[in-house]
Design goal:
2 helices; five-stranded antiparallel sheet; mainly beta; Jelly Rolls; globular; 163 residues
């Protein structure tokens, strides 16, 4: 249910779980997209016209993962667990999280991360990331890298050839 709209036809407030999920489940090349099946993102930041950072309300079905394990060059990321017990995988190893817990990933740290739902219940969390132009992402476990160009992700193999 939407609250009153502003002059720009943007809502003042929304119920996060009622925002329609992203229609394209993944931006990854097809060879990787199936690995994030069971992930549902509701793009909250865009709903309010935010341009400096993004906010997603994300649900992971049992067995699903948030993303391929990755690290950003210029984008800080933050997650806050609302429901369930995802396993956070970082270079330090696995850490089981619980509702109310949060984690942050500093740009340029090189510490690759992902959430995996290894339970039989849904996991729901908020993810926040900035939208710094020129970001690049490394995926240490996969033959993949990404660069943010003109508002979209471009995916390449580690040798620089495009997918």
């Amino acid at each position: 249910m939407l609250a009153a709209m502003s002059n720009e036809q943007r809502p003042v407030a929304v119920v996060a779980a009622e925002v329609p999920p992203r229609t394209k489940p993944s931006n990854y090349p097809d060879v990787f997209a199936a690995r994030v099946a069971g992930r549902e993102k509701r793009i909250l930041g865009d709903r309010f016209g935010l341009t400096n950072f993004g906010v997603n309300h994300t649900r992971l079905a049992p067995g699903a993962m948030s993303a391929l394990r990755h690290a950003h060059a210029t984008q800080d990321e933050f997650i806050y667990v609302l429901e369930g017990n995802p396993t956070l995988r970082t270079d330090a190893g696995p850490t089981v999280l619980a509702p109310g817990m949060c984690a942050g990933f500093r740009a340029g740290s090189g510490d690759a991360h992902q959430l995996v739902n290894e339970t039989d219940r849904d996991v729901v969390y908020l993810e926040v990331g900035d939208r710094t132009p020129g970001d690049a992402v490394v995926y240490p476990d996969d033959d993949l890298q990404a660069v943010y160009v003109d508002g979209r992700w471009v995916f390449l193999r580690k040798d620089g050839t495009p997918y």
